């Protein structure tokens, strides 16, 4: 399980993180993405090998808030947000929004006025308002926490402590999906790919847009590659296919069908790979979305 702490400076995030660490959580603090143009890879490098359960102090919701206020906007594009949220969802991540009263935040920030962004009270107020008014976006479960009115033990009782997929799982989306979109394999690596994301490419974005156009709820599906690379350069069917054999599989391309055939699974539908569709029918995104709808 992953607990993502968000909220303005002076809201009690670090204190809450220390309490979670006493419960066995590993801790990772995120700073401003460097380079800012690729925050997904920056964040991934910080937490992808950290054992779970894990508490993360700030990430993409802070980018939603601070990016427009202190830079030129959020550095996350729509595809990277889909991938990041999908990976977090597969690991049963929840967001804890730390939001005590504004006056408490102002008092706490004043005690450390030399820290970054603390000297500008107007900015502190703007950040607080952005978090309080929901100027951020997530499909993950959100729990609001005010340390001035609730004990940590009470918050812990509210959090859903449930299992998730392995930390090195290569796939995104629900950890208990109804529909599973199966693709080919990573094309830019040999051996273990080192990143748990699939379809970080133009065809991946095409697939994302087509799925979103169907209106399929994010909590009902998972996207993964049908094949994983072995250390010796050979491939094997994704390890989780057998575990999920009772789900509804949608094969994206012939190689995806072969992966499912290898483990004795018959997909409910076999669609063209999004790369193929994008190459020959680029302008017909609606057509690809309709294929997905019929498969569902």
Q: What order do the helices and strands come in, and which of them pair?
A:
Blueprint: E1 2-6, H1 13-22, E2 26-29, H2 39-47, E3 54-57, H3 60-70, H4 78-90, E4 94-98, H5 102-110, H6 121-132, E5 142-145, H7 152-158, E6 172-173, E7 179-183, H8 202-214, E8 221-225, E9 227-229, E10 235-237, E11 248-252, H9 254-262, E12 269-271, H10 274-281, H11 285-295
Parallel strand pairs: 1-3, 1-4, 2-3, 4-5, 7-8, 7-11, 11-12
Antiparallel strand pairs: 6-8, 9-10
Helix pairs in contact: 5-6, 8-11
What attributes characterize this protein structure?
five-stranded mixed beta sheet; Rossmann fold; 16% strand; Uracil-DNA Glycosylase, subunit E; 296 residues; single chain; elongated; alpha/beta; 2 domains; five-stranded parallel beta sheet
CATH-level-2 architecture of the largest domain: 3-Layer(aba) Sandwich
Q: Which shape, going by the Cα principal axes?
A: elongated
> What's the CATH H-level superfamily name of the largest domain?
P-loop containing nucleotide triphosphate hydrolases
CATH third-tier fold name of the largest domain: Rossmann fold
Kindly provide the name of the CATH class of the largest domain: Alpha Beta
Low-confidence stretches: none
Mean pLDDT: 89
- String of helices and strands: EHEHEHHEHHEHEEHEEEEHEHH
Strand order of the largest sheet: 2-3-1-4-5
Q: How many helices?
A: 11
Overall number of strands: 12
């Amino acid at each position: 399980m992953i607990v993502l702490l968000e909220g303005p400076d002076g809201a009690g995030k670090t204190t809450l993180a220390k309490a979670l660490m006493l419960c066995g959580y590993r801790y990772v603090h995120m700073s401003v993405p460097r380079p800012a143009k690729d925050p997904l890879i920056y964040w991934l490098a910080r937490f992808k090998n950290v054992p779970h359960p894990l508490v993360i102090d700030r990430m993409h919701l802070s980018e939603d808030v601070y990016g427009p206020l202190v830079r030129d906007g959020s550095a996350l594009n729509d595809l990277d947000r889909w991938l990041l949220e999908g990976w977090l969802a597969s690991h049963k991540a929840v967001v804890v929004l730390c939001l005590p009263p504004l006056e408490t935040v102002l008092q706490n920030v004043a005690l450390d006025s030399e820290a970054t962004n603390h000297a500008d009270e107007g900015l502190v107020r703007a950040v607080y308002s952005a978090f309080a008014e929901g100027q951020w976006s997530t499909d993950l479960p959100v729990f609001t926490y005010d340390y001035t009115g609730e004990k940590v033990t009470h918050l812990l009782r509210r959090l859903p402590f449930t299992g998730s997929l392995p930390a090195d799982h290569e796939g995104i989306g629900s950890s208990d999906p109804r529909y599973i979109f199966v693709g080919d394999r990573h094309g830019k690596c040999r051996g273990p790919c080192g990143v748990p994301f699939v379809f970080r490419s133009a065809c991946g974005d095409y697939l994302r847009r087509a799925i979103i156009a169907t209106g399929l709820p994010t909590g009902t599906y998972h996207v993964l590659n049908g094949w994983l690379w072995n250390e010796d350069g050979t491939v094997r069917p994704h390890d989780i296919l057998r575990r999920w054999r009772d789900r509804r599989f949608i094969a994206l391309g012939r190689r995806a069908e072969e992966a499912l055939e290898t483990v004795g699974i018959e997909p409910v539908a076999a669609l063209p790979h999004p790369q193929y569709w994008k190459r020959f029918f680029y302008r017909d995104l609606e057509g690809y979305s309709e294929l997905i709808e019929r498969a569902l």
